[in-house]
Design goal:
- This protein is mostly helical.
- It has one domain (1-117).
- The protein has helices at residues 2-5, 12-22, 25-33, 35-45, 52-67, 83-94, 98-117.
- Helix 2 packs antiparallel against helix 7 (98-117) and helix 5 (52-67) packs across helix 6.
- It starts with a helix and ends with a helix.
- The model has no long low-confidence stretch (mean pLDDT 86).
- GO terms for molecular function: phosphatase activity.
- InterPro entries: His_PPase_superfam.
């Protein structure tokens, strides 16, 4: 049930639709336009930062650390609260498609309906 609630249930149709979206012209243009930022973040975090989701998670971590008055590394000053990082982070919420949302929530709706009928 935890995987269903977290939206982590395996779904080949969702994976295929997400792959198509990531290979779309829109994503390719974002990757080209912000490739320097992906490279910068990968270099300093030591992790592969090559998707909008990676950037959004990273931005959220910095935001939460800021809420708790934690000191951020010096190198983050070049990117945190800057338009490029914010734009990419926000894009994760606006670039999705209806089909992806439908496929992602499908297992949860299925689980709910099964519990009503069982």
């Amino acid at each position: 049930m935890d995987l269903v609630l977290a939206g982590k249930t395996a779904c080949p149709a969702y994976d295929h639709a997400l792959s198509n979206l990531r290979n779309s012209d829109v994503f390719q243009k974002l990757n080209t336009r912000f490739g320097y930022l992906f490279n910068y973040l990968s270099k300093y975090t030591g992790r592969s930062m090559n998707s909008l989701e990676d950037v959004q998670r990273f931005n959220n971590i910095l935001y939460i650390k800021g809420l708790y008055n934690k000191t951020l590394p010096e190198w983050t000053k070049k990117v945190y609260r800057r338009p490029a990082l914010q734009f990419l982070s926000d894009s994760t919420f606006t670039i999705g498609t209806y089909n992806l949302a439908r496929l992602k929530t499908g297992p949860l709706i299925k689980e709910i309906l099964q519990r009503f009928t069982d």
